[in-house]
Each structure stands twice: as structure tokens, then as C-alpha cells.
Write a structure and sequence with these properties.
- The protein contains 12 helices and no strands.
- It is mainly alpha-helical.
- It has 2 domains: 67 residues, Arc Repressor Mutant, subunit A; 154 residues.
- It is elongated and about 60 Å long.
Length: 243
């Protein structure tokens, strides 16, 4: 993607850099940061399902006993990493601008989310298994998705001059959550599971982000995005023009 106007990060590299900055801090701070960095690196190499305390200890050059002074088990340290990932995604997300059209706003966020999903796809492998072991992480993801749904609905209400209380309509929120779920599952299939039928899309980041945005826009606004705002999906979009 050329000249992206958003922050792309790799969580393993972020935690490695963070650990390096803790060299002059106290031992507990330094050691915890080193364990997090090592665990993120191992998750990136093999995914959560292959993660073990032994792998983390070996990667960090520490004894198993040292690990247990800071974390209870592998799901404990992996949860801490995923929480940091979600916090960074939330902190750096593009902000809606009044100068942007609705589709441009949706597209900007999906380009950002897709780029960071790709940058962290290996680490996110097995995240669903982790959430079964750490239910509090599932609750946190629900909070994040609910907050994002509210943001989308507030933007929609502002643009469409909707009556007060519209953003609390459970069906409206469900429509947005279905779009969020669609994006997550599609990105998992392409970049984590690498589904054979979708393999040709692995190197088509911009096209994937635009098509996701196209379908999101139709789901939320009930119409086709303006064709002049489309690049890759323009021909496809023309076949969906509302008549």
C-alpha cells in the first residue's frame, strides 16, 4: 500500500522495542517486559496453540520458575499481549472527519484495520482458542466491538439526521456488529487460515479493504457507495446500483 495515512505496527516488534527501553528500569519491570516480548515472538512464529511456557522461557533465556513469578500460565501472558494489541488498534485508529464522506470514513478504518491485521496475522493465529481459555478476553473484545458499533451509529445518525435514541436501536447495533464480525472472519480466512479458495487475495490488501468497505457500506446504509469513490470495485459496484 503506497503512502498509507495511518499507523501500521507489528506487536512482536513493539514489545521487543518496549523491552529494550526498560533496561534501566527495576528488575521486575525489565523481566516482565522481556517475557512479554519473548511470548509475542513465539506466538508470531507458531501461533497460540503451539505456545508453551517452556518455549517462552527458552526464548527469553529465563528459568521456568522466573516465568511463574510474573504470569500464571501461557494464556495469562498471551492475554496480556492481545489486550495490548487491541489497545494499540483502538488508540491509533483513524478518526472520522467531517470533510470525509461516509464511505471514505468506513474505508479509512478498514484500510487501517486490514493493514494491522496482516502485520499481526501470525501472532493472531489461535486467538479463538485463547479466548476459550481466557473468557475475560472475549468480554474485552465485546466491549471494543460494542464501542466501535456506537461510534459508527453516532456517525450515521449525524449524517442522516436521525431522531434521538436511534443509536440505541438493538437492530441497528446488530447490523453494525454483523459488519464487524464479517470483517474479522473474512480477514481470518484470508490471512490466518489461508483458505485455498481465497489464496489469490493474500497479496491484494487494498482490494480486500475496499471490498470489505463496499459490503459494510451497503449493510449499514442500504445503498451502493458512490462509484467515483471506488477504485477496485467500481465495475462490481455498478452492477449493484440502486434503481
Amino acid at each position: 500500500m503506497s503512502n498509507p495515512s495511518f499507523v501500521t505496527f507489528n506487536m512482536a516488534q513493539v514489545l521487543k522495542a518496549h523491552a529494550a527501553r526498560q533496561r534501566d528500569r527495576g528488575k521486575r519491570v525489565r523481566t516482565r517486559a522481556q517475557i512479554l516480548a519473548a511470548a509475542a515472538r513465539e506466538m508470531e512464529l507458531a501461533g497460540y496453540e503451539a505456545l508453551t511456557v517452556e518455549r517462552i522461557a527458552n526464548a527469553s533465556g529465563m528459568a521456568h520458575g522466573t516465568f511463574y513469578r510474573y504470569f500464571d500460565n501461557r494464556s495469562d501472558v498471551a492475554s496480556a499481549i492481545i489486550k495490548r494489541y487491541m489497545a494499540l488498534v483502538r488508540r491509533n485508529r483513524p478518526r472520522a472527519s467531517k470533510a470525509q464522506t461516509p464511505f471514505q470514513t468506513i474505508h479509512a478504518y478498514n484500510r487501517y484495520y486490514t493493514a494491522n491485521y496482516i502485520a499481526n496475522a501470525a501472532m493472531l493465529r489461535g486467538r479463538e482458542a485463547l479466548m476459550r481459555e481466557a473468557p475475560e478476553l472475549m468480554k474485552e473484545r465485546d466491549v471494543v466491538n460494542d464501542r466501535w458499533a456506537r461510534i459508527v451509529l453516532r456517525d450515521l445518525a449525524r449524517r442522516r439526521d436521525m431522531p434521538p435514541g436511534s443509536t440505541e436501536d438493538p437492530f441497528a447495533k446488530l447490523a453494525v456488529r454483523s459488519a464487524i464480525a464479517m470483517v474479522d472472519e473474512l480477514l481470518r480466512e484470508i490471512y490466518v487460515y489461508k483458505s485455498p479458495s481465497l489464496s489469490r487475495l493474500v497479496d491484494s490488501e487494498e482490494q480486500v479493504a475496499e471490498l470489505i468497505s463496499f459490503m459494510w457500506f451497503r449493510a449499514i446504509f442500504g445503498e451502493t457507495p458512490p462509484l467515483n469513490e471506488l477504485k477496485w470495485a467500481k465495475t462490481f459496484g455498478a452492477n449493484f446500483l440502486d434503481r
